Amino acid sequence: MEVKTSLLDNMIGVGDMVLLEPLNEDSFIENLRKRFDHNEIYTYIGSVVISMNPYRSLPIFTPEKVEEYRNRNFYELSPHIYALADEAYRSLRDQDKDQCILITGESGAGKTEASKLVMSYVAAVCGKGQEVNKVKEQLLQSNPVLEAFGNAKTVRNDNSSRFGKYMDIEFDFKGDPLGGVISNYLLEKSRVCKQPRGERNFHIFYQLLSGASGDTLTKLKLDRDFSKYNYLSLDSATVSGLDDAASFRTVRNAMQIVGFMEDEVQSVLELVAAVLKLGNIEFKPESRVNGFDESRVKDKNDLKEMCELLGIEQSVLERAFSYRTVEAKMEKVSTTLNVAQAYYARDALAKNLYSRLFSWLVTRINESIKAQAKTRHKVMGVLDIYGFEIFEDNSFEQFIINYCNEKLQQIFIELTLREEQEEYVREGIEWTNIEYFNNAVICDLIENNQNGILAMLDEECLRPGTVTDDTFLDKLNTICAEHQHFESRLSKNSKFLTDHSLPHSCFRIQHYAGKVLYRVEGFVDKNNDLLYRDLSQAMYKATHSLMRQLFPEGNPAKVNLKRPPTAGFQFKASVGGLMRNLQTKNPNYIRCIKPNDKKASHIFTDSLVCHQVRYLGLMENVRVRRAGYAFRQPYEPCLERYKMLCRQTWPHWRGPARDGVEVLLIDCSVPAEEFAYGRSKIFIRNPRTLFTLEERRRACLQDLATLIQKIYRGWKCRTHFILLKKSQVVVAAWYRRYAQQKKYEKIKRATLVMQSFTRGWKARKILRQLKYEKRCKEAVTTIAAYWHGTEARRELRCLKEEARRKHAVAVIWAYWRGLQVRREYRKFFRANAGKKIYCFIIQRIMQKYFLGLKTTMPSMSPIDNTWSAQPYSFLEGAHTELRRIFHFWRCKKHRGQFTEEKKAVYEEKLEASEIFKDKKALYPSSVSQPFKGDYLEIQKNPKYQKLNSAVEEKVLLADVVNKINRANGKGSPRLFLLTKSNFVLADQKTGQVKASVPLPDLTSVSVSTQSDGFFALKLKEGSASAAKGDFLLSSEHLIEIITKLHRTGTTAADKDQINIDISDEFLVQFKQDKVCVKFIQGGPKNGTSAACKRKNNRLLEVSVPSSP
């Protein structure tokens, strides 16, 4: 039987602050402290969860805990973040209500960890399946990527989120996740250029330098030493407990799971490296004749490396750091930048580059995790955003963060009151208006379109003339002086003139969480967030794959003279959209609190917690919740919990639960004004009434426990006596049986002894008789044996004598016959002896030669030319022939190891050698390079999916080539695809097919003898493909392209062999004209690659660099 617990069971302090009695700030803090000391980090305020950061791992997030809170009522178990996540998920799945979970708190309070716990719980309890698991994994793995690029180590938190994040997780009708959409708010991009003491830049910089391989750092032109980069703080470069190298591997793996291509990952790392290089660029002043100072780059090495990473011409970027172009209607005015302005431009570029890269990452992740189905989705939003911030020095960032929190507090109070009112109406209980502080007046002070602070800041930034922070403060003092929540020492309000706690360059706003002093310095610059147009246009000219996406305003063809929107305007619009989104969903709240500033466990600082309780508005939340009825509970669990207090309801109530609760409350003499009956719930006004019921229940449970113990002890004693009685009967029976067995065994042993003695006597008597008979037989046998032996030895001596005589006769006869044979053979021996000896010697020499050849055999490698020396001249022919046969044999063995693919590669290399060896200067450098064929990975890359579907046959070669324009000699990139029957030229960006030429229409290919990559494809005159003329192209893989063209044309049954013309001067047909292409030595001035230039209408000249 499942044992159900309750929020009120085994309480440490009070699990729900609504039930706290007495309710004041001290008792609120003391209750949090008591629960924190007993590792109870979660507390409720109604349906709101307060989460204390324990700064250590607790065993309350295990899979067992997930199952414990799964499909349970919110108040059924002790407070936990899983209870809120389960309530939100079940409301979304079963009631078709869109949900949002708002997580707020200051830095270090555990907001990011809370959002991870919510997402991990939802992932654990939703459906299973290959596709669902893939979606869940992508949603979870998006966190490490965003944390690496958006989180940093601060004095308050080692993994502080420096951006606001809102994720909409989309579900189908079954409650299975389909995908998600992430929105980011206000990345703290100023951290890229400067970090406060004791803090770090964003994690990705340190992870890249610590975890990337040596080859990767070399490609990115980086060094592992943090001290070599001005943008990285050194006092906190390494953080205990953070393994940057392991984190980098985790980020790379997460990007792969989310769906980033390898080239996209490399492009992102190149931009991160470029930001580091940008921080090392320094400037020096240089005086001009007109008296103005001009900035110049000191050391151009870092500038050069950064330009190489981004693909920008060094001179273009250097000029953008020294000059600024201002456009007004049809006029352009170029002004020089001094050193301070150059440093400002450099930092502005670094901040914008990193900020836009982060926004691109969010967009790219959204493309991967967005739901593919077009049907309506259920949505659960998770908001992880900065909490209210009050520092010693508060600036523009704190101002807009606190503005966002004012809006969240406003919607929080509105939605909480609306939820309370809806529940009262749903239960049929009269609703009474609740007095509370409405912070709409503060929101209006900030966001009013006419007299709001943000509107005045935008107006000040956009007006002509001299604009400073002081002029902005003057405008505030003029317009907002009489506002009850605005304070400034220079305003017209005389009561602040002598307030020395209010500096002259500051203003103070009385937020719902308290008064905050803002220093006006930097407000105008940070709101402008200005990036010079020259830098935008320089970035747009970069050849890097991402730069044009990040800086679209740099396109010269789309110059917009309109000033870009300010940072405050953009943030106000984002917050407005967020508020509209949240109002369409059912809200769930998690308020995160950090117990101390030391990031240590078991330390609870009252003043710090009190400060957070105030600015989170938790006391206000409790008062709103308690304004009507403090506690409400469905009738069934209420009757189940308190039924033992009334004899009529104990142990079972047979009627409706509401009737049972009415009987119970009347029997307990609870005053009628202390409760109210809803349609499905009982409402209790005062927590004291609930605690009184709890005390009576606790006492009743003790009486019931005593009764149960008494009955149990009686039952146990009776059972023990009956068991002893049964045991005595069994023991007596077993003993009697044992005694009879012993008596029987004794008689049996005596009988066996007597039988054994009798049998022994009889056996000994028979044995003696048998032994006597045996001795008599042995004596007769011995005498007979001695007699037969004597007779045998006598006969043996006679036979031996006769044998010796016969042997002597045989020996004498053999010697006599041998003498006769030798006399007959002697006359023939001299004539045949020489030939016999010669053949024998030759045979021995050859045997020795073959045995020696066996031990000196060379290796099985076909390129091993060693062979043993020739020992005798008469073996020269055999020696040579054996060497040839052995070489052919081992070549055959080596060829037998080749696969079909390897044979094809060697055949292509052999054919390339036959075509280009000693004819083309580029050929030697291509020998060591393998023929890859598909350089674009056209089957895998989704960018070319449309082009892949347009090509019906298998692609033998896919590469990027440059199509040479006859008009100016410049190249435009094209995709070159070769199949068995034709070749295709397509646009690199769109993948649109520009030309498709059947191979039978290709008559010849012309190339030069030099080391360039130019080649001309000449088409058959009169064919449909030759309407626009021949193709003049250039490629880094010229040898491979022409070899595959020649090989494909040779193997085609209906095609003549393609001619390869190798000459430094050949003709190319462009429409109706023939143009001569001429190759000359002597490379271009600014590079090592060949360059094509138009000389006249009939001549294109290609300059090829001289070989080193």
TrEMBL record:
Domain Myosin motor: 12-698
Described function: Motor protein that may participate in process critical to neuronal development and function such as cell migration, neurite outgrowth and vesicular transport.
Localisation: Cytoplasm, Cell cortex
Protein family (similarity comment): Belongs to the TRAFAC class myosin-kinesin ATPase superfamily. Myosin family.
UniProt KW keywords: Actin-binding, ATP-binding, Calmodulin-binding, Isopeptide bond, Motor protein, Myosin, Nucleotide-binding, Phosphoprotein, Repeat, Ubl conjugation
Protein name: Unconventional myosin-Ib
Transmembrane parts of this sequence: none
GO-annotated biological processes: actin filament organization; actin filament-based movement; endocytosis
Segment forming the signal sequence: none
CDD domains: IQCD, MYSc_Myo1
Xref: Gene3D superfamilies: 1.10.10.820, 1.20.5.190, 1.20.58.530, 6.20.240.20, Kinesin motor domain, Myosin VI head, motor domain, U50 subdomain
GO molecular function: actin filament binding; ATP binding; calmodulin binding; microfilament motor activity
Domain TH1: 920-1106
Organism phylogeny: Eukaryota, Metazoa, Chordata, Craniata, Vertebrata
